[in-house]
Write the structure tokens for this entry.
Amino acid sequence: MLSDVGPLELLTIAVIGVLLFGPDKLPEFLQNVARTVRKIREFSESAQQEIRSDLGPEFQDFDVRDLHPKTFVRKHVLSGDADLGRELSEIREALDPHREPTEATDSPRATVSLTKPTESPQDPRPS
């Protein structure tokens, strides 16, 4: 959870905590925060257990994180069919804006017709 927080950020948070709550009340505040986080986790786990029991025995391996669209696609679409995964990677490469230009985009003037454009009819309205 805190994998991207460095030591300088933790030190800054600790100093701000001591300044806001004081050294006497900071341990009590941290205990209250830990207790609240523990209750939220217990509530979340009980809700997931209730959903699993309501869905039936075929959904015992159900995980709420599977409902996130990226996780769903990664788990059910990309892992199931190797050809589909290869096709999706080809599409991803074709749409990549940072890739090298292809032969068709290297010389766009080579594909332009060198014929003279047709003349448009003159405006019939008097000037």
Q: What stands out?
A: The CA atoms of residues 104 and 111 lie 8 Å apart.
